[in-house]
Amino acid sequence: MMKNAKIEIAIHLLFWFSIISALNVDWTANWFDPSIRPKTPAPLSVIMFTIFFYVNAYVLLPKYFSLKTWEKYIAYAFLLFILPELVRMLIYKFTISDTSFDALLFSRDSFLFGTPSPFFFAINASFIYRFTKDRLLKKNQKRELNEIPSKKSAAPYEDSNLLSDEEASILEHQLNHQLEIEEIFLNPELTLRDVAETVGSTEKKVSYLLNQRLKTNFYEFINKHRVEKFKLEVAKSENKSLSIVGIAFNCGFSSKSSFYRAFKSQVSMSPSEYLKHSSPRP
Q1: 116 and 169 assigned to the same domain
Q2: Going by C-beta distance under 8 Å and a sequence separation of 6 or more, which residues neighbour residue 66?
Q3: pLDDT at 119
Q4: Is residue 56, in this structure, part of any structural domain at all?
Q5: Percent with pLDDT over 70 in the chain
Q6: Is 195 within 8 Å of 206 (Cβ atoms)?
Q7: Domain-embedded: residue 10
Q8: Confidence class for position 229, pLDDT limits 50, 70, 90
Q9: Which position has the higher pLDDT, 177 or 278?
Q10: Which of 42, 138, 149, 182 is the most buried (most CB within 10 A)?
C-alpha cells in the first residue's frame, strides 16, 4: 500500500507539472476580460478544472456512476458544471453589459466551451485517472477484497464477550438494513471499515458478529448479497440486453473471476448452469 501511495503521488506531481507547463497561465491578467487573453486560458478556467477534476474523480464517479444511480450522477454533474457556468455568465453580463449571452457562452473563459474547455478536459482526465487508479494502483487490493477465505482461517477472538446478545442483535439488524434496504454492497470497493462506519460500530465488533455469531466472514457475507442481487437482476426483462458479467458488475462485483468464484461457492454451479436450470435468457 505504501508503494501504491508513492506511485499515486508521483502521478499527481507529474500530471500537474505537465498541465501548468503546457497552459502557461497568466495569473496577473484581468480575470473578467476575455479579450486580453487571446492565446492563454483564463485563470478561472484552470481553477475550475482543478475542482471539477478532483470532485468528479473522487466523489461522482466512484459513488454515482452506475446503472442504479446514473440519475444522481447527472444531477450532481449538472450542479457542478452547469451552475458555475451560469454564475460566470451573470457576472460577465453585469460587468460587460454590451455582450450577448451567446457570446458569453462561447467565449474563451467559458467553463463548457472555452479553449481549453475545463468541462471536457476534467471529464476525460478524471475518467482516465480513475481507470488507472482502480485498475493499476488498486489491483491487488481489489483481488484481496473479493477473495473468499476459508472459514477455518478466521483467527479466534481473545474477548469472547465483545458483544452482548442485545448489542449483537441490534448490530445485526443495522447491518441487514444497510445491505438489504440501502444495498451498500453495490459498491465494488466496499470494505469492512466502510461497513463499520455505516452502522456506527467498529471493525472489530462487525468482524466478531460475522465470524462468531453468524459463522461467516466479511467476504462471504457481502458476496452472498451480491449473488442474490444478481439472481434478481438477471431475471428482469430490462436486463436482457446486458451480459452476465455486465449484470454482475452492476451488483457490486469488480471482476469476472471474483463473481464466478463467489457464485459457484454459494450456488454450487456456474452462472451459465444456473440460468439453464432456471428461466434461460433469450
Answers
A1: no
A2: 186, 250
A3: 77
A4: yes
A5: 72
A6: yes
A7: yes
A8: very high
A9: 177
A10: 42
97 and 186 belong to one structural domain = no
What's 204's DSSP letter? H
In a domain, 142, yes or no: no
Question: Are 132 and 90 in a shared domain?
Answer: yes
pTM for this structure?
Answer: 0.46
Average pLDDT over the chain, rounded to an integer:
77
* Domain total in the chain: 2
* Per-residue pLDDT at 222 exceeds 90: yes
CA distances to 5, 161, 193, 218, 225 from 204, in Å: 25, 12, 9, 11, 21
Indicate whether 144 belongs to any domain: no
CATH classification of the domain holding 225? 1.10.10.60
Domain with 9, as residue range(s), is: 2-137
SS3 252: coil
Question: Distance from CA of residue 162 to its chain's centroid?
Answer: 33
Cell numbers that stand for 137 in this block: 494502483
Alpha-carbon distance of 176 to 188, in angstroms, equals: 18
